[in-house]
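Please review the protein record below. Let me know how this chain folds according to its tokens.
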Amino acid sequence: MKKNPVILLLVLMIACGLVLSGCSSDKTAGDDVPGETQPAEPSSQTTPEATPEPTPEQAPEQVPESSWETVRDIQITHPVNVVTFISDDYGITGGLSGEFHYTVDGGQSWPKGENLSACRFSLDILDENLAWSGGASGNVRMTRDGGKTWEAVRDVSIGGTHTHISFIDDTTGWIAVNKKFAITQDGGQTWTETNMPEGISSIAGIFLRTADDGYILSHDGQLCITRDGGQTWTKQALGLDRFKISDVKGKAGHLNVNALPNADVSFADENNGVIAFIGMIPGEGFKTYVLTTSDGGKTWDDELLVFEDGYTPSILTLSRDCKYLTLCDNDKRVVVMKRSQ
């Protein structure tokens, strides 16, 4: 039987319409971009939000209690290259052109001492009467009246400015420049240059505790100890590189070589000693550290001194009994600290 073509065409149109009606959507252009996931329609039921657990409060970071407390904070106006206090009240400064000043009232007043010498760079105060000082041009000076008057002893020239001096009384002592040191046993009338400890090229600090027992601190962090007046030495590495310091030449673990005292060493007895130094940390600036030992230097405890107002000392010295640390910055602000522990 022959099929009518018109009827067939109508049937096809009706079928296509049914298929297209199954893909129709009421969404506008831009909806359902291929590859994107559309957000689900909100549920008619609301899920309650979870209650966040309370965050425990963090305790403030505990700052270790310092072993040193400030007992004097003084602004001075006279020239100063070196300053030392041995008590809350008594101290001496030495400066340009041999200028000395002393105080007996904690820095409220600074009478000028009588002296004729070149600039002063090193100072050792034994008590409130006796003190020694070294400096430029080989000049060595001593006072027996607390700094009021200074007398000359024989000059000693060993190749530079006297950056360090240490005496046990009015007769026996050491004096040092950067790379050499000398000994006197007759109050500075004669001096004997003594060999440096082997492997030590420069001196950052010295201390004579008895006629036989003495100490040299080197710029590379070695502590040298003698028990026979400097004839033989033992060495202990302090490991200053752990503080991340370096000198101006970039040598790690080294202290800066300076005519002004930026490091010192002192021992109250054979076992108990203190080392203090100002070290430069690249990118952070200068920091002040204090090391203490109670076993003759076999082990050391270290402490970074933190000054809240940004105080940055450039000079420091220790008292002979290890109880006082004296600091001074470039603006001649003197801070005296006393060991409390």
Observations:
- Residues 68-339 form a domain with the Methylamine Dehydrogenase; Chain H fold (CATH 2.130.10.10).
- The chain has one helix and 23 strands.
- The chain has one domain: 68-339.
- The mean pLDDT is 86.
